[in-house]
Amino acid sequence: MTPYWVIATLLVASSTIDASPVSPTSSVKDMLISANFTALVDSLVANKLDDVLNAKGPITIFCPTNEAFKAMMDNKVEMVKGFNTTQRFLHYHVVPRKLMPTDIHNDMTVTSLRPDKHLRFNVYGTDKKIMTVNGVMFGQPTVVTPTIVMYKLNNFLLCASGGGIFDLLKIRKNKNNQERFSILVEAIQLVNLTHTLEKEGPFTLFAPTNDAFRRLPDGVLNKLLATPAELKTILLGHIVSGTYFLSGLTNESDLPTLDGRSNRIAVGNTLTVDGAKMNVEADMLAANGVVHVIDRVLLS
Asked: Which of 86, 129, 135, 190 is 20 to 30 Å from the Cα of 105, by its Cα?
């Protein structure tokens, strides 16, 4: 199964979409049909979400394209992961306020129609042209009326894990249902960074897997676990203040880490951070940031 972040990278929303001319008296349903979000309309109708279809606003809808529905149809369990019902999943794409691009700033969180589920917005680049919601890129509004805004998405919005980054690390397992980050979790607890990664932030964590720790030269891991001060410095070098999704990482980006240094990002056939491959898995969303999996420990 293709990882969600790969699909998100391949299906990039245009940033130059012109708003469709619609009558402000049209219904939300008619606006969606006019903008060719017909699969979304079908899903809203099938799930009896009249509160969205007949909404008067103010409201903002993040609209997955028909192609997004087609691409994800065979992966419905992943689509609704974190939600009890499809209705709640669709409500997660709707914000009960009008959001224009000028209203959006970096690392802003907004409550959706699921009040227990927040959306995280990010704005990247010196020209602030790259905008994301939960890591999914979007551009200018497709539909704008005095009370209603619609944005095109080439992917669905997945929700953050129930807790922060530390909680996410504890529950993630590999394809063999084995703990994936247990060594990192142990190290974080040893140097008292648990609260930081669970309650503070937002942060971006470049997370070495258990295999990455096992690739260290003989004796290095045991030495680090026996010297908490050195271990803490190394772990802080994996943490960046702020939320940097894959779409916000550009070639030769320097991201300042909590140890006072910086991580150099290189974008090419393989995405790397300080030379460590980052194409294992990216954009794992937590309540207080995002986690990118890397294949080695950053020692320098």
From this structure: 86
For 170, half-sphere exposure in the C-beta direction (CA atoms, 13 angstrom radius) is 13
Q: Nearest CA to 3 among 244, 239, 175?
A: 175
| Dihedral over Cα of 126, 127, 133, 136: its sign | negative
Beta bridge partners of 256: 262
Domains by residue range for the chain, with CATH: 4-153 (2.30.180.10), 165-294 (2.30.180.10)
Which amino acid, 227? T
CA distance 212 to 170: 16
pLDDT 10s digits, 162-213: 789 999 999 887 677 778 999 999 999 999 999 999 989 999 999 999 999 9
Q: Please, which residues have CB within 8 angstroms of residue 271's CB and are 6 or more apart in sequence?
A: 246, 249, 265, 277, 278, 279, 282
Distance CA(63)–CA(298), nearest Å, equals 39
Buried b (16+ CB within 10 A) or exposed e, 242-278: bbbbbbbbeeebebebbeebebebbeeeebbbbebeb
Q: Is the pLDDT of residue 149 over 90?
A: yes
Q: What is the dihedral of CA 294, 109, 150, 54, to 10 degrees?
A: 130
Sign of the torsion formed by the C-alpha atoms of 157, 161, 163 and 166: negative
Q: Do the bridges between strand 148-153 and strand 59-64 make them parallel or antiparallel, or are there none, so unpaired? A: parallel
**Quick check: 12 pLDDT over 50?**
no
Going along the chain, which residue ranges are E strands? 59-64, 94-95, 108-111, 118-124, 130-133, 136-138, 143-144, 148-153, 203-208, 239-241, 253-256, 262-266, 272-273, 276-277, 281-286, 289-294
User: What residues does 151 pair with on adjacent strands?
Assistant: 62
